[in-house]
């Protein structure tokens, strides 16, 4: 009997290594950096082709603040991809996320199923080699080994962890590991390459579900017990109070470095974690001068550059190895090959609490589009577009009030169960703590400017409510539309 392969896709990450393209609330896995699909969507489709897993056999682990974007992108691929999503209330690193996933997989797919754990934001160009590697890894997993994919290094990279391998074979092409090592300095990385027995740590793992749970009980019982306590009432939505108690440890440290049954599969699959603009440049299509250009830009006497132009025309002259990223709210100019400076810059912007670090200037929603216009300590200004026959669901904010001015179309607004039609040029006030929703019942876009005022303008300051209660004062035509919109 063949063991069922259950892909487990980890969708966490802070989303700032490719700032300002990626943000904390819009990490790189949701961006279309290569081709027509986002990195997440590419990962799902590639994984399905390689593993043969059905839509409803995928499991996703995500943070609550990116849950809506995840669901929306998965629905674009197929509705059943959203069947199995686990929502971490806070980030506790990969040991917690994989323990949470293993418990769910064991319950719903069986302890004999094979978990294939992989990040949502990596790029792999050689699917045939990936498929062969997966088949080899499954062989070791069936012998109760925890198997990881080790990437044959192409250069002395300081941004990756390494795996020191032995020459002792486990089964097929898999080898026993000697040790996992952290990101080295350049001289150490050069020695690793010269030695020949070091591989890049890809962060992809294959193991039997029952086997990994046994390893947790043996080497990290505190993690698995804390995870179990957090899901007593809801296996998909752990209690934040309990989940905060889970030790914040990487999976490698908690399990892989301690277990006596670890195997590594050396592979050359065209892999990149796209962890820097240099790595993004490497895998992108280039013109004859080595330049990667997106948007409207002109370059003269410039080589090996990356230019991303958003709304404005970007020009460069006489420069090499430079990255220029232009978005609506920020412009970045950096040396393509100096990732360390980029890291220091982003860390500094976080300490300054710059809003550009957190939110993208535009964010697609299931109901339309949200565009950030301006922000300061006491207010936030947005432009919101609601698509025809769509609605923003019932919600309230505990720490802020909102003032809307309709600039295009007509809104049907319900505030504290009182209905109001708001036409172009008219406004509506949403008091702090009010329960409200907004419908676009027309066949044209609805666009309004929203000003938020309060002492907490965090996007998480929203409580979504049962929408059935909004229908009290609606007319029958509106009720008919409500039923249509709520199920759309």
Would you mind describing this structure in some detail?
With 488 residues, the chain is an alpha+beta fold. The protein has three domains: 5-275, Alpha-Beta Complex (Spore Coat Polysaccharide Biosynthesis Protein SpsA, Chain A), CATH 3.90.550; 278-351, no CATH class; 366-486, Jelly Rolls (Sandwich), CATH 2.60.120. Helix 1 (39-51) crosses helix 4 (127-142) and helix 6 packs across helix 7. The longest helix is centred in the N-terminal third of the chain and has 17 residues, at 93-109.
Q: Return Rg in Å.
A: 25 Å
Quaternary organisation: single chain
| Class inferred from helices and paired strands | alpha+beta
Distance between the termini: 41 Å
Name the CATH architecture of the largest domain. Alpha-Beta Complex
Q: What is the residue-mean pLDDT, rounded to a whole number?
A: 88
* Total DSSP E strands: 28
Number of helices: 13
Helix content: 25-40%
CATH level 4 superfamily of the largest domain: Spore Coat Polysaccharide Biosynthesis Protein SpsA, Chain A
Question: Which characteristics define this entry?
Answer:
Spore Coat Polysaccharide Biosynthesis Protein SpsA, Chain A, Jelly Rolls, 3 domains, 6-stranded antiparallel beta sheet, 5-stranded mixed barrel, disordered C terminus
